[in-house]
Amino acid sequence: MHILYSFRRCPYAMRARVAIAYCLPEQNFELREVVLKDKPEALLSISPKATVPVVQLESGEVIEESLDIMLFALSQNNELEKALLPQASKANILKLVEMNDGDFKWALDRYKYSDRYDQSQSYYREKGELFLSQLNAQLKNHQYLMGEEMTLADLAIFPFIRQFAHVDKKWFEASEYSALIKWLDDWLNSDLFKTIMTKYPQWREGDEPTYFP
Ligand SMILES: N[C@@H](CCC(=O)N[C@@H](CS)C(=O)NCC(=O)O)C(=O)O
Q: What is residue 104's DSSP assignment?
């Protein structure tokens, strides 16, 4: 069985779980819930960089980047791969995910933990808003980020917008990004989201397997 090392609240792990739950609902992964301050030896030995999520395939192959785990899940489901990553918009989808993982994540970390950084919280929030306003503009006329159909971009980005929103919920909810607020709300109320947010105890060597999804 494939093994998924995960951490419930990590946005990268969330995107991996979402892709797996959506594309491979019938496939059982063994889910191993990791506590970041107490990483299991089994994870460290296959992935010395020791971030989550990590997938170890049945074949032994290790996938240690969340986006690669998503692409793996898509590659196992031809129909959904075509829908979520259409050839014609593939480059744009991946570019948007790259912006999320790059400049936006940079701003998000600093907005969330501004006391550890040089600038004020509002300074970092404004940096993050560059991305929020771009997404909001894309969502004004469409249900999803790339148009009327859900794509990999929606799956990969929403956990980070959720985290940004959580830093100051009141601010987010009162903000001008109403299309983005609705899009995030739809995500948070979806069955898919509930499936991936199940709570699991910390995994320890020798535990009975927990299956996901
Ligand atoms: N580029 C990695 C980033 C993953 C990542 O940074 N995950 C965080 C948790 S949200 C982590 O594992 N950090 C290691 C630590 O805190 O020890 C990916 O996309 O999978």
A: I
